[in-house]
Amino acid sequence: MKTQLIELNINDQIYEIPITPVDLLVDVLRKKVGFTGTKKGCGQGDCGACTVLIDGKTALACITLAIACQGKKITTIEGVANKDGSLHPIQQSFVEHGAVQCGFCSPGMILSSKALLDSNPSPSELEVKRALSGNMCRCTGYILILEAVHAAAEKMAQAGVK
Amino acid sequence: MTKKYEVSNKYGNYTDYKREFTEVGRSIPRPDGPAKVSGATVYTDDMTVPKMVYGRILRSPHAHALIKNIDYSKALALPGVLGVITGADCPIVYGIVPHNSNEHALAQEKVRSWGEGVAAVAAIDDETAEKALELISVEYELLPVLTDPREAVLRDDVRIHEDRPFNIAHEGKQRYGEPEKAFAEAAYVLEKDFYSSYVNHGFIEPQSAIADFDPNKGTLRLWATCQVPHYTHQQLAKVLDMPLNKIRITVPSIGGGFGGKGVASQADFCAALLSRKIGKPVKITYERSDIFATNNGRHPCYMKFKMAFDKDGLITGVDFDNLMEGGAYAGWGIVVLFYTASMVHIPYKVKNVLFRGRRVFTNKPVCGAHRGLGGVQPRFAMEQMLDEAAEHFGLNPFEIRMRNAAESGHTCASAMYVPHTEYKKCLEVAVKNSDFLAKQGKLPFGKGIGMSGGYYISGTSYTLYLSYKPHTVATIKVDEENGVTLFCGSTDIGQGSNMVMAQMAAETLGVKSENVHIYSMDTSVSTFDLGTFASRVTFATGKAIKQAAEKINQELFPVAAAMMECRGDEVAVKDYRFYSIYEPKKKNVSWDEVVTRYIESNGPLTATGQFTPPRRKGLQQGGNIGHSPTFGFSCQIAEVDVDVETGRIQVTKITEAGDCGQPINPMSVEGQVHGSIQMGLGQALYEEMKIGPDGKFLNPSLHDYKMPTTLDMPDVHATIVEAYDPSAPYGGKESGEGPIQPTIPAIFNAVYDAIGIRFTEMPLTPEKVLSALKAKKAAEMKA
Amino acid sequence: MYILNNFEYFAPETRSEALELAKKLGSKAKILAGGTDLIIQLKEKMITTENIINISGVDEFKGISCEPGKGAVIGACTKIADIEYSEALRKKYPALSFAAGEIGGPQVRSMATLGGNSCHSSPAAETPSPLSALGAIVVISSKSGDREVPIEEFILGNRKNVLAEGEIVTKFVLPEPAPKSANRYAYIGLRNAMEIDAVNMAVNLVLENDGETIKAIKLVMGSVFPRPLISEKIPALLIGKKLNDELVEQAAEVAQSEAKPITDVRASAEYRRDVVATLTRRLLKEAYAAAKEA
Questions:
Q1: Is A130 at the interface with chain B, CB within 8 A?
Q2: Do domains B391-462+620-782 and B470-611 have the same CATH topology?
Q3: Is the dihedral of CA B480, B482, B483, B486 positive or negative?
Q4: Fold for domain C195-293?
Q5: What does the pLDDT look like over B598-654, one tens digit per residue?
């Protein structure tokens, strides 16, 4: 099988990466680009730990072919913080509200939250729950995560942040 | 010196107080939070080390079989494969409880459960390792499979372990008081059977290990997802036949453990053995199916419970027969067995107890330590039986519990001592907050409310292997370059123990928690600690840290006193300032200055503290188990909505009130309560590892092993009741494994309130509910 | 877990490119749209393939056209999430919207496509039931042209369908709902998210001008048969009648008798049959009440 060079737009940077067609996005991100923030929890699309954004919509990197991502904008957890490195309001909110325990689900949770708030800045309780229903967490029972997302939505609305 | 400057002034009984806590009791966001939310935190699988290669384990598709032959020649011939090991490479037995260990890194001549490892491969990349597995051919001779402990215990013709007749791994009997008399004289005897289910921890991060054996120095370095680095350290030394001091274990951040990472995993051993064989570091990371194959989850129990009551509804006796399923190996088994025995003694006063327990081998992935081990099962039974007894006596569930509740200073029949409890307060607060009394028995058919109590240990009194050394050591170093540095080998598995240790150290030292540097989770760099299990960390490290910090203060106070010109025993420290307790405004000096003065005149400043729980001698076989320096308590009240046409249960609300003494970090306590409820809810309603009659695992994926999602969680109203345990460091007790205890019985009691049917088996699936409703209707039609 | 089976990858940009490739590679190629079934099957080594044709980049295969009076045409590569959130579809075909919204979790819905859900042809698939109740036609394209197949004839059962070599499903055509009609969907699963249905059901009910008598009814059950099961007895029972409690009960029994569920890791046959009865009752009442208001 031939290795080919493809270009992937990850967190607003273009990376030239050697891949084969069978390579999965999660492995390319973690091993070839070195962005280990996207996690592998199950490899079968059931836990959401590998959630990334592709053109702003959530996707499961463990069941996405890297080669199919050419020409798309990929956002990983490493690309969520502000340009100066300060935390995005959602990230800050997670930290402040006790929404992070072991932290393994956090990257996926935050990206799912971001996708939600970017398209729906003032979601209802049910909408937030639904948006995160594909991200498994075993530590927090979700409650403080949901609180954190609502608090972030409020802060972002106040600040006019996108 | 007799003053207690850490006593909270909120606890009215204590008149000798100087100030409130400043660091303990703060809901400080954890310092590792920003890294975790940025994806910067390093977990084991995120790591690479130079020259690292990748390993995988080949697992048996059969549940019970002899291994006739393993041919891995084709695997070795695959380009990129560097080495293969099989059971022949790991003949030395290991186990977390050494005196009855029977596990090996890879199967020895036979496999005893689906998914047992039979060979391991190392290759230059993960894909090649995975491919290589397919090229290993194993010849099996199938053996009869035992998947039901009730059958296994009768089948001496099929011995899963040769040295265990009737597949009984362990047996235990305990008799306290005069149970036969209690039952004979009882006003009411209730007898019921219960079954608690076969569940898995479900942590999101799979186990991972990187082993780096240096052939030149003969040393082994291991990075692994391990809750108990010390036990792993010992077992690695044993299996690899190496001295302890040539092995170093560092635990990177862990993505959840819940007891499942409280054993040395085969990934650790196989990676180490492969690394030694090929002279390169080897990383093994589990797939989700590997996690199910190695399991180590909760022991299913077939429980026969009898409870005797006097005419006032007071428990006079408990007779508990526990047929506990252990899966294929010994693991934590004997410990769990005797924990189930001990868990009937608290939180209610029980004078007469008869216990008979058998842990039985079956051809299923081994069971082990799982959050709240040994407690969840008998709690499930007792809390439902209390409700049923209450009904008999015309009492409500709250009343019967209040009557029977133990109080501070209670000594159990088993000699377990409860120095402190606010259990009654938990009951009262939960009942009040949920409006239980107005609702119970009065909601429309299909809606119900139910309550349950629970408790758990704050650490064990004994190590898992015979030893007299301290269970925890903490060393504090104070210098100008770093401020305060704390060394303690405890393992933060996500529960926030690093933060809590910092808070406790900061409290006594008078500095800020955020500025305390922590070196934990490393067998070389950190000081000794047994590990994270049995909810021991806060209490044990708290004691050691307090001791070390007080020693530091003993060194600094005289220097501060001299600088302030006051007496040495009139000094206190807070917010980076030493001050005279009688003239705080006039006489105070900065912490930094005192430290500098000390170091310049005395030299370096470090101090070490230690803790070993009191050795409470058990009165009977296995009676050591269950003792703890102190215990946490809680009450949960669940409200449910049962769809009577489909049997689906929605838990709409859980009200909780918990006694963890003084919460060190209330936000972390809250997090533990919420997480416990999620786990309990999952076991109550959705989760079950399903094994076919041939022993094959039917649902080894998160697809069909169903854990609660955001949409399944109820509203949770959790309260930390006002409490302070004077026997505990900073007043704090456990809150990691207690809060899961009441969840399942509260839900089952609520379902009884909703539809008048008592269920005694987990999980309570819609099918079981609907089936029971149909049967009930049919019976009513006949009548 | 990796895909160990090597394949060639193609990403056509136009309809004709896609069909050309499909013809050239025939059964040696698998079609990739969302990948939520295909990639998992490849990783778990349930299937292998020499080629993958990724059609998700072909704009002609995407899109929702749903104008008043003109039914709907949905491109096969339209994301499930887009169907879930389409206001136009929700107004006319709530059964389809609701079914789409219950597939997996949000990430899966962002990736998965309507075409994939039908082509995977799992007995537990969510969208085939409402598509069938709504009378949807599957448009199958190849180099030789298009052909149309009603959805219930498209799926043969247990991951098999009528697609021949060189064929790709390109769109779904839904007829305009009749006046005084309503369509609804219901399902049962263990949890409230990330579920595979133990049973699902869709109903499309049309009333006569009097707004009470049932003119036509199509009830389709999923997950109780290798493919969507269209009830034959319920139309016979209900057409020409006004719905009342007695008829609802009879319909429930009738549906129960027609269902042929199996026992598997998710639920037993007996439970599925019980649920079929309950869902029938609830769906009929709901659809009837909604149709009356239409």
A1: yes
A2: yes
A3: negative
A4: Enolase-like; domain 1 (3.30.390)
A5: 999 999 999 999 999 887 777 888 888 899 999 999 999 999 999 999 999 999 999
Chains in contact with C, where contact requires at least 3 CB pairs less than 8 Å apart: A, B
Judge: domain C8-54, CATH 3.10.340.11.
Answer: no
Nearest to A139 among B27, B43, B256 (CB): B256
CATH 3.30.365.10 fits B470-611, yes or no: yes
Query: Would you kindly state where each structural domain of chain B is located, as residue ranges?
Result: 44-143+207-285, 391-462+620-782, 470-611
Tell me how far apart the alpha carbons of residues B200 and B689 are, in angstroms, rounded to a whole number: 7
Average of per-residue pLDDT across B368-383: 97
| Residue of C3, C41, C271 to mutate, interface with B, max B Cβ within 10 Å | C271
Q: What is the mean pLDDT of residues C266-281?
A: 94
What would you report as the CA-atom Rg of chain C, rounded to the nearest whole angstrom?
19
Interface test with C, best of A26, A30, A46, A63 (most C CBs within 10 A): A63
Contact B533, B369 (CB under 8 A): yes
Task: Tell me the pLDDT tens digit for each residue of B263-299.
Answer: 999 999 999 999 999 999 999 999 999 999 999 999 9
Q: Residue C271: which of B127, B686, B770 has the nearest Cβ?
A: B770
Report the residue of chain B nearest A104, measured CA to CA: B255
ipTM value? 0.98
Q: Which chains touch B (3 or more CB pairs under 8 A)?
A: A, C
Give the mean model confidence (pLDDT) for residues B357-376.
Answer: 97
Interface check for A107 against chain B (CB to CB < 8 A): the answer is yes
Max alpha carbon distance in chain A (Å)? 53
Question: Which CATH fold topology does C59-174 show?
Answer: 3.30.465
Nearest to A37 among B39, B203, B668 (CB): B39
HEC sequence for B599-617: HHHCCCEEEEEEECCCCCC
Interchain proximity A36–B27, CB inside 8 Å: no
Q: Which of B762, B759, B757, B752 is nearest to B450 (CA)?
A: B752
Tokens 């064929």 sit on residue: C167
C106/A27 touch (CB, cutoff 8 Å), yes or no: no
Could you tell me the two tokens for B573? 């420290």
- Which of the four pLDDT bands, split at 50, 70 and 90, describes residue B567? confident
Boundaries of every domain in chain A: 4-79, 89-159
Superfamily of domain A4-79: Beta-grasp domain (3.10.20.30)
What pLDDT sits at residue B107? 98
The residues spanned by each domain of chain C are: 8-54, 59-174, 195-293
Looking at B299-418, which runs of residues are DSSP E strands? Answer: 301-309, 315-327, 352-361, 410-411, 417-418
Is CATH 3.50.50.60 the right assignment for the domain spanning B391-462+620-782? no
Per CB-CB distance under 8 Å, the chain A contacts of B677 are 141
Class assignment of domain B44-143+207-285? alpha beta
Q: Cβ of A142 and B45 within 8 Å?
A: no
Interface size, chain A vs chain B, as Cβ–Cβ contacts under 8 Å: 172
Per CATH, the number for A89-159 is: 1.10.150.120
pTM to 2 decimal places: 0.96
Torsion of CA B686, B692, B697, B700, to 10 degrees: -30
Closest chain A CA to residue B46: A36
> Which residue in B669, B612, B626, B453 sits closest to B534, CA to CA?
B626
Question: Min CA distance, B289 vs chain C (Å)?
Answer: 10
Q: Averaged over B739-750, what is the pLDDT? A: 98
Interface test with A, best of B37, B251, B253 (most A CBs within 10 A): B37
